[in-house]
Write a structure and sequence with these properties.
alpha+beta, Helix Hairpins, D-amino Acid Aminotransferase, Chain A, domain 1, OB fold (Dihydrolipoamide Acetyltransferase, E2P), five-stranded mixed β-sheet, 19% strand, flat, binds 2-(butylsulfanyl)adenosine
Length: 668
Amino acid sequence: MEENEKILALREQLHKHNYQYYVLNTPLISDQEFDQMMHELQRLEEKHPEMFDPNSPTQRVGSDLSQDFQQVRHKYPMLSLANTYNRDDVRDFYQRVSEGLHGAPFEICCELKFDGLSISITYENGVLMRAVTRGDGVQGDDVTNNIRTIRSIPLQLDANKTWLPNFEVRGEVLMPWKSFDRLNKEREMREEPLFANPRNAASGTLKSKNSAVVAERGLDAYFYYLYGESLPSDSHYDNIKKLGEWGFKISDAMKCVQTLDEIYEFIDYWDAERSHLPVTTDGIVLKVNSVKQQQELGMTAKNPRWAIAYKFQAERACTRLNNVVFQVGRTGAVTPVAEMEPVLLAGTVVKRASLHNADIMNSFQLHYGDYVYVEKAGEIIPQIVGVDESRRNYEGQVIPFISVCPECGTPLVRYEGEAASFCPNDNSCPPQIKGRIEHFISRDAMNIEFLGPETIEEYFNRNLIHDSADLYNLQVSQLCGADGSKLKSARKIVESIQKSVTTPFDKSLYALGIRFVGKVVAKALAKHFRTLDALQNASLEELLEVDGVGNVIAESVMRFFRDDRNRMLIGKLEMAGIDFSMPEMAESASDALSGKSIVISGVFKHHSREEYKELIERHSGKNVSSISSKTSFILAGENMGPSKLQKAQSLGVTIVTEDDFLKMIGEE
Ligand code: IVH
């Protein structure tokens, strides 16, 4: 087969397997085989740039190039639906439809209302041409490049199916709970603000200017409407089923019914069942099923007359507000927290709810003893959503946001552009000091076992520690009782503190608690600069060169090192024996790898890929990029690519582990 034909064939197969995996959830081949085909296609496409196609399966990874969205006018305006919240409204809708159709029989298609962002996608001759957001309903943003990265959306329809030559589909882009949880966990690690719910996360992601970001975030999409000339059927339900056959993800929950009772049944069933779905739904959509009848009913200025949304009640409880307390975190940020009479909400007892910041708290005008509504909708953390003012039994003063730190009395400040209020006394405000030490000892930082928040609290209160460096001066005699009790645990604590001085640089850097420098950024900085000295002296431009470092992080790093107190702390930590640097590579050169062609694959523990390339050269070997029968061996880290592994096996090329390689060159 010619390579050009091979490219087309691979694309077709990959589109099919993609559909099996992401839409049907029933893969026909292993992930390994899939990756192998993808790599092969990538290789061929690199070789034949003239064959570039934006809808090739290889393009799902997106691009780092920033894009500005073009405004595009919708061919069919994107209407929104009228919302209802109770059964009477549903009955009114049903009757209005019946009257509008002059008593003719009709069916209602009941569907889930997915809680994401609506999208309109145009296909021509089976190829995805353009995807546009709702915008103002008349025109929206062209987000085609971002949409292409969503694996469950077909880029090219299966040639063996008979689809319409030109059509437009409407659907909802969503972030499944699984992707949402993962994303927020990563953001927490990087100390970035969390997304409140999957809808916000999906919306933030789809509007990202960098489609590579979209590709990583695991969005999904369900389709629920088809526009086009000569539709396959007059039944909306059948048309959507057709969309399913053409390769789109559609919901299993659709149901056609005739009576009001059946509608109520559908609502009740999904109100209870929706919590088991992998994505968020906030209600039910009811549509007149016949497309002809839909046209007959037409629309009002804003909404179609043939459809309506029934919104589920968010789980909500009403309880008494006892107090508002103010918590000070490690960074000095002050968070108001409502303390309430315990109340049962969505299966858990709730007694505290964050009020986030001064603006949000003040918007409720809270009074002591107020009855407040608490909700757990898409949100994970319970939120106060309102006050039942009719139950307020006295008109006392509104509970004010504090103006001084509840812990140290320092007047609070608010930095421009930040919603939070801060206690600026980071030097001696107790929760900030304790918070920093707790961060320092945590697992991802210095990982000092046997110490925890309680012991830190105790040592701090006993004046034994004032910063993290003081930990290294702790003596066994100070930590055990005067009578020698707790001797064993005191010894273990001191031992584990001493042991921590050998913590690798990326972790000791993370342990310093520089604002916005999470685990991942710390690793990138450590790798790039190799020593704390180099990092301290880096200019803004140099910092910005590091992967994942933008202005906010770079400026925070510079601010940290400008502060004399931080430099003093680092001095004390170095005195205690912490070496803030990556291990130097052995300088010695040898002929150990003379005449050897070596392929590098996978992820490594001791050195970066670049360093291994350098090491190979220094020891007279040659680094080559692809495996052939001439390859001497493969230096393999973890997660070596499956296609490489298979190729190595079939050619009988030896695989050498990282540790064995280091032994070969005399570096252990
Ligand atoms: S039908 C004219 N069906 O809800 C038909 N919409 O306010 C318009 N939505 O903008 C949409 N699930 O983003 C339809 N099964 C579903 C839906 C759905 C979610 C969203 C959509 C729309 C909004 C209605």
